[in-house]
Amino acid sequence: MRKITLLTVPLLVLGLFSLSADVDFTVSGSSTVTFGIDLDTDSTGFKNESTVDLDITLVSEQDANSGTLDTDDLYAYIELSDFKWEIDSSAGSGAATAPSVTAKLFMGPFTITTFSAPTIEVDYVDHTGGVDTNYAGSGGLSIGYDLAPVSLSLGVLSEADWDATDTQNTDNAYAFLGTLGMDIGDSADAEISVAYAHEHSGGDDIGLGGQATFDLGDIDTTISFDGAIPSDGAGIPWDVGAGLDWNLSEDEESSFGADLTMHVPATGDPTVGAELSLTEGDADEGSLAGLGAALTISLDDITSGSNTWEVDVAAHYSSDGIKPYFEISVNSAGDTMPFTAGLEVTVIDNLTTTFEYVSTNLTGDTPDKGDITAAIKIAY
Questions:
Q1: Coil, strand or helix: which one is 3?
Q2: What is the DSSP string of 79-116?
């Protein structure tokens, strides 16, 4: 039996390689030598590194489904997404990526989703310390109705399995989520959600929220709100927010964004947060060829004199194999200012030379003088 098994394994492997049209080989390797200087300790030295990777894809990433019938009759549908089977030499093993599964029953505009469990959450406004009504569970189903311009859905999940080994759903705890969506013409849509939980460990609060989106050509704007009504009748915390995203290039890789949010707690003063961002696409993408950049400015509370603000800046410029770059972050709440600046040169095939300066903190009581490195990397 042992001899048969040992013979069968290589035959099976050879059979997979010879019969499967999906088999794909990827070989890569690199070798880097780096000379560095630590400006705090005056330490210097060389460091050698290398990588070798062999990837064999037996089944490439793909999706499959049972097919959608063009009928108003009741039918069942299942879809498997993003599954593959590959061997990675760096991991030393092969593995199949578990697919995501969606299973539904259709009857005209009505759907019943039997897998996976609905997500019971209401959080339309992203604000630090804001309202987030979220209930976790083990399983459930959702019922939907979609007939333009209106869509409705109702989801329900149990906090635990009815026959769980450790914790059964003995309290009969459930969470519910109802959502109403509506298309308003060709350039706007709106959505409103209500969540409620009964005997759930997350509480019995009622979550309420909504969002409206407006398409104004190159500018997309949103208005949103959310809140939580506590079961004990105490104060009601809520959030409101407004934002815009302005496309600045034809390929939509360059944009300007602005968001303003306000959180009103159950007790205490409201806080108003703001964030501005500017993004420029890499290389030939975006508005300016060769330039890639990202700028983010955020404030936790513009109404307070002691608000926390943060600025992050990163930029690089690529031209004929020469790429200077830098990154810097400033946060008023901390005592650090990390900074990176460097130059990449790739004028010779398979060769990248990098000169870089990195400091974890340019300021403060204990500034980091940083490290200076020069690296030569040969890669394939």
A1: helix
A2: EEEEEEEEEETTTTEEEEEPPEEEEEEEETTEEEEEES
Which residue, among 226, 160, 217, has the nearest Cα to 193 in the 3D structure? 226
- How many CA atoms are closer than 13 Å to the CA of 222, on its beta-carbon side? 19
Q: What is the pLDDT of residues 354-368, one digit of tens each?
A: 999 999 999 877 899
Q: Give the torsion sign (CA, 130, 255, 321, 316).
A: negative
Q: Write down the number of H helices and E strands in the chain.
A: 1, 23
What is the DSSP code (8-state) at residue 46? E
Neighbours of 371 (CB within 10 A): 17
The Cα–Cα gap between 344 and 289 comes to 18
Looking at residue 51, its amino acid is: T
DSSP sequence for 26-38: EEEEEEEEEEEEE
Closest CA to 371 of 363, 362, 380, 317: 362
Q: What is the distance between the alpha carbons of residues 32 and 296, in angstroms, rounded to a whole number?
A: 33
Q: Using CB atoms within 10 Å of the CB of residue 34, give its burial: 0 to 12 exposed, 13 to 18 middle, 19+ buried.
A: middle
pLDDT digits (tens, 9 = 90+) for 70-121: 778 889 999 999 888 888 876 666 777 788 899 999 998 999 999 988 999 9
- Spatial separation of the C-alpha atoms in residues 222 and 188, rounded to whole Å: 10
Question: Which alpha helices (DSSP H) does the chain contain, by range?
Answer: 2-19
Please name the residues in contact with 337: beta carbons below 8 A apart, sequence gap of 6 or more: 328, 329, 330, 331, 361, 362, 363, 364
* Contact by Cβ (8 Å): 103, 77: yes
Task: Say which residue the tokens 């031209």 belong to.
Answer: 319
Nearest alpha-carbon partner for 103 in 95, 89, 113, 93: 113
CB 368 within 8 A of CB 34: no
Cα four-point dihedral sign 12, 13, 17, 21: positive
Q: What tokens were used for 56?
A: 């064999």
| Closest among 124, 133, 121, 135 to 262, alpha carbons compared | 124
Q: CA 341 to CA 343: how far, in whole Å?
A: 7
